[in-house]
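Hi V.,

You were right to ask for the full record rather than a summary. Here it is.
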Amino acid sequence: MAVGCTVAQIAKSILLRAGERPVLVIASGVNRVDPAKVAALIGQPVERADGRWVREATGFAIGGVAPVAHNERTIVLIDRDIAAIEPVYAAAGSPNAVFRTSYAELLRLTGGTPADVREEEAEARTG
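Predicted structure:
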């Protein structure tokens, strides 16, 4: 990484759709987001959002979705796994810009909710 961090230190922004409501999941770069867990947390089904809808809802293109300053009011869930990582780097509005932050700061800036959103590993699901 250009900032000299590990993949786990990337606080990636994944935007899902709950009907017309955006749901932003901020997850550690090493974790896959489990849409079923997200749906259970917010109490309604979610689906992946396409690039056009992401830009309309947030004002940002996929790959540069910042955790704040979205066009629409957004439900924000923050991966609890990030709490054990310091510092983390989040997108700053473009695929080539990040900012250094922390789990506590992400919670404060976004008003987000700590959540278990990580997809369990394949062997845990099958065994």
